[in-house]
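Chain X:
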Amino acid sequence: MSFLELTNVTKQFGRLSAIEDINLSVNQGEVLGIVGPNGSGKSTLINVMTSYYRPTSGSIYFKGRKISGLRPDKIAALGIARTFQSNILFEGATVLESVMVSAYLQYKTNNLQSFLRTKAYRDEYEKIVGKVLDLLKMLELFNDTFLPASGLSHGYQRMLGIAIALASGPKVLLLDEPTTGMNHEEAMFVVENIRKINETGVTVILIEHNMKVLLDLATRVAVLNFGIKIAEGKPKEVMNKREVIEAYLGTETI
C-alpha cells in the first residue's frame, strides 16, 4: 500500500457526484499535482482527504491506517495539513503569533502544565518558538515576524498560510491553488518555497491552475474532469494527452 491511498472514493451532494470512484496513490516525498477544469472536483478531493467532507463511499488510508471518517483535527494530528484558496488569517495577530497557534499540535505537555507554566512547559514552549522562527527563516518571512499578519502583501499572506500549515509538523501538505491572484514574481517566490518544503521530506499535493508552476514543481499529475480521474502520470506527457486537452479546451478545438 502507498504512503497515502484513496480507494474507490466518491463524494455526493444529494444526487450529484462531485468526485466519483477515485483511485489515487500518493508516494512519500513526491509532489503530486491535481489538475482539471473549473468544477472538476479538485477542491472537493482535498476536502475529502482532510475530512472536511466525509466520503459517501470508498476509503482513504495513510501509512496503512484507514483515516476516512476521522475528524479533521485527528487527520491533522496524524500528519496531514492543508491550506485553502483564500487567505485565512487570525485578526490582529502578528506573523509569529499566527504560526504559533498551529504549532499546538507539537506540544507534549498538557493543559494543566500550560496553566501552571511548569518548567517542562516553558522548556517546550521555547523549543517550539525556536522551530517556528527557523520555519519563518526558511520561508523568507523572518523579517516580518512581529508585523501584523493582515499587513502583509497578498503573496506573503499566502506564504504565511503555508507556514501556519507547516507549523503543525505535517508529513503531507495539501496546497489548494497557492499562487492564485499572484503576479509572476510572487508566484516564483511561492514555487521556490514549496520546493524547499518538499526537499525537507514533506510530501506535497498541489492544486494549481498556473501550468508553469505545475510543470516546475510536480513530479506526477492526476487530471480530473467532471469528478472522474481521466489521466495520471508525468506532467508533460499527461498534459499532451488528447482526453486532457479536450477536457480543458473542448472537442471543437481538437
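Chain Y:
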Amino acid sequence: MRAAERGTTSGLAERFGRFLADSSGLADLVVTDAHRAVAGFSWESWILDTAWDRGRRERRLVARRAPEFGLLDRYDVVEQWDLQRVLWEGGTVPCPEPLWLEATGEATGRPFYVMDLVEGVVPTPADLEETLPEERTRVGLVGDLARVGAEIHRTPLDVLPGALPGTDDARPEREVSVWHETYLRDRPQPIPILDLAFAWLLDNRARISPRRTLVHGDYRLANVIARGGTVAAMLDWEGAHVGDPVEDLANCCMRLQGGGVDTVNGVVSTKDFLALYARLAGEPVSEDAFRYWLVFNDVRSAVVFLTAARRFQEGRTGDLRFPVLASRLPNLLRHVLRDLPDR
C-alpha cells in the first residue's frame, strides 16, 4: 500500500471512529484498523476493528459506504438501511444486523450505514471447491440457498420501504424496461444480439409469472456468507425490487455463475434446485418464466459490462476491473444466443 493510501485509510478510520463513538455512546471507542474488502463493484465495504474500555472489549463491524463511482445508477443508503432493518427484524432472512445510519455524508464524505460483521466465507464460482472442499457441504449450502430464496420471496410486501423499485410500478416487465433504457444510454453502438434479445423480452411478457414478491436482484452463492453448509447471511441488496421471484432463481442458475444452465455452480442440477425451492416456497416454478428470466439475466449482465466499459473510458473510474469485465462481453453474448428460445 502506498503512503498516500495509508494516510487516506488512516484518516477514514478516524472519521469512522468518531461517528461510532457518538452513535454508540462509548466515548472511548476507537477504530484500530480499517480496510476495504476488494470484492464487489458497487457499495464500498469497510471492515472496521473497534475497541473500547481501554482495549478490553472489541468488536468487528462493517460499514457499507456509497461509492464514488459504481456500476449501478441508484445508491440510496436510506433505502438499503430500511430494507435491511425490515429483514433483520423479520428474523427469517439471514442478514447482518444493521446498527447505525449516516445518511448525510458529513462523517466520511459519503453516506454509509454500519452493520455487524458475520463470520464465515464468501464462496465464488472460481474458488468454490477450495473454499468448501467437502461435496456434502457444497450441496447443503445450495439447498440452504433455496430455503433463503423462499424466505426472501415470502417477505410481506406491506413492510417493505415505500421507495423500493417496483413498489409503485406494477408492470411485470418493469425491470426489462429499466435495463433497456440503460443499454440504449451506454452502448457504444447498436449490438444486434442485444437488440434481438430485448425485442424478444418485450414481445414475450406473457411468460412472466403472476407472482409479485421482494426480489433480491443478484441472488447467487457469491452473495452469501457461508458457515459450513448454511447461509449465515445474504449480502448485496442494492438490486432489490418488487417483481417476479423467478427472476432471482434464473440469476442463480445462469451460466455466468459458473455452473452452466443445467446446474447451480456445478453442485446440484437446476431441476433439483428448482424443485426444492418450489417445495419450500409452496409455489411451482413456471418453465416459461424461468427461461424468460434466464435470457433477461444474461442481457442485464451484458449491459452491466457495457456500463463498466463506458465509465472507465469516460475516466469516471480508474478501477482496472471495469475494463476486465467488459472483456467478457463476447462470451456472454454467446450465452444470450444459447438461451434465447427458438425465434
